[in-house]
Specification:
It is built from 13 helices and 13 strands. 38% of the residues lie in helices and 20% in strands. Helix 12 packs antiparallel against helix 13. It is elongated and about 60 Å long. The strands form 2 sheets. Strands 1, 2, 3, 4, 6, 7, 8, 9, 12 and 13 form a 10-stranded mixed beta sheet that branches. The chain is an alpha/beta fold.
């Protein structure tokens, strides 16, 4: 009984990678009888809180922890990048299937400066599209969220007014809109409300069959989110030794601009050697086997050179 108990791992955090994490954890458990992994997708903010308090064996976040958060944590944590994903602007506009949403337009919608779908700024990017005069209903996350961090990190890079105003963070003072908990709720709020716009990880748009817009990248190219676009965004990134990096608005004709790594937050040292062994073994399995499955759920795998480097970091954990 003691061993089975010791092999029960708990984790909490990001909803952005939840579809791939639940698949991985289930497969790993099936291949390793006696190992049970319970992951709660409560948002990156909650994941950081729970792992720093030692309430879970590992956390998960789409935003790297800040220096002061790492310094304040009683538990020394290591960032392990797992996959890359895209955040997409989803919309529910009557009669409209395809929509181009430029950086200035996205910022102005979320700043409450563009309030109807037939606004001249939206019309300019969408010639020939019959845009209704419906009021825009802005949807954002209600809790501390890594997806929000990615979205606002992007808006801060493309809009001076956003950068000087609401700024970037996992939880901010929104100028307008209604809140939904988790990527799941944001997706359903947009689906249920005609005129709504929101932001979710790509897989949630695909699974819920919600339209999502093309975004103009740093090189001025219009792109719909794709695995290839996310991979291209990561290609130019200079990855620091601790893996904490932002790849929003990356250069390159094919780079999708609202892309990000997502991380597992792993204690550098464990008081429970049995649990630590299972956790490290699971991380090794993810990097060696799990990465091959991510494109089926519309995530991008880690570049091979990075995966090799992260594996060495995992082997060095105690």
């Amino acid at each position: 009984m003691g061993v089975a108990q010791a092999q029960h791992l708990t984790g909490a955090g990001a909803t952005f990678p939840y579809p791939i994490y639940s698949k991985w954890f289930q497969e790993y458990s099936q291949a390793h009888p006696g190992v049970e992994i319970n992951y709660q997708s409560i948002g990156s903010g909650g994941g950081i809180t729970q792992v720093t308090k030692g309430l879970v064996d590992f956390g998960a976040s789409d935003m790297p922890m800040k220096d002061d958060q790492l310094a304040a944590s009683p538990i020394k944590l290591i960032h392990i990048p797992t996959v890359l994903g895209a955040v997409v602007p989803i919309f529910n506009v009557a009669g409209v299937q395809d929509l181009k949403l430029g950086p200035d337009v996205l910022a102005d919608i979320y700043l409450n400066k563009i309030t109807t779908w037939n606004d001249p700024k939206i019309a300019k990017d969408n010639p020939g599209v019959n845009l209704p005069g419906d009021r825009i209903i802005v949807v954002h996350r209600s809790e501390g969220s890594g997806t929000t961090f990615i979205w606002t990190d992007y808006l801060s890079k493309v809009s001076k007014e956003w950068n000087d105003g609401p700024g970037k963070g996992s939880a901010i003072n929104w100028p307008t809109g209604i809140g939904g908990k988790g990527n799941e709720n944001v997706a359903s709020l947009v689906r249920q409300n005609p005129g709504a716009i929101g932001y979710v990880e790509l897989i949630y748009a695909l699974q819920n069959k919600i339209q999502f817009g093309e975004v103009k990248n740093a090189n001025g190219k219009w792109l719909k989110a794709s695995i290839e676009g996310v991979t291209a965004a990561a290609a130019t990134a200079k990855i620091p030794a601790d893996y904490r990096v932002s790849i929003t608005n990356a250069p390159g004709d094919t780079a999708y601009p609202i892309s990000s790594f997502t991380y597992l937050l792993i204690p550098a040292k464990s008081n429970d050697p049995v649990k630590a062994k299972v956790l490290h073994d699971m991380l090794s399995w993810i990097l060696k086997s799990g990465e091959g499955e991510v494109t089926n759920l519309s995530y991008a795998p880690l570049p091979q050179t990075l995966a090799d480097k992260v594996l060495q970091t995992v082997y060095a954990l105690q």
